[in-house]
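Human: I would love a firmer grasp of how sequence relates to backbone shape in proteins. Could you go through the record with me and say what the backbone is doing? Here is the record:
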Amino acid sequence: MALAEVGRLQALFGPAATKWFGFLQNKIRHPNKNVEIAARVAVDQCVFAPANLLVFLSTMSLLEGSDPREKLKRTYKDTMITNWTVWPFVQALNFKMVPLEHRVLVVNVVALGWNCYLSLQNSAAGK
């Protein structure tokens, strides 16, 4: 059941990510493209990723009828650290090589595996 709930949450992610990637594209500019990509990755991983994980874990907890604060206390830090071992690399390649209109698609493909991990983390935290 947790994987189905993850799928429903992903339906909300697409529109938010589309706006977010447009924001990064339009607001974070630098003459040196590598600096620009690094800045976009840094902002993405320091703003969007923590907020997205917070919403995910809290929403899953509410859907399961448990206390979101307890779920966050048990899983947020370790899951965020794991996020930072996967997503900065993915996003750097995404921002460097993929046109803006296809970036959400790339993230969604990688998210297939990531969402399985989140589902496992979420179900393990409930035990």
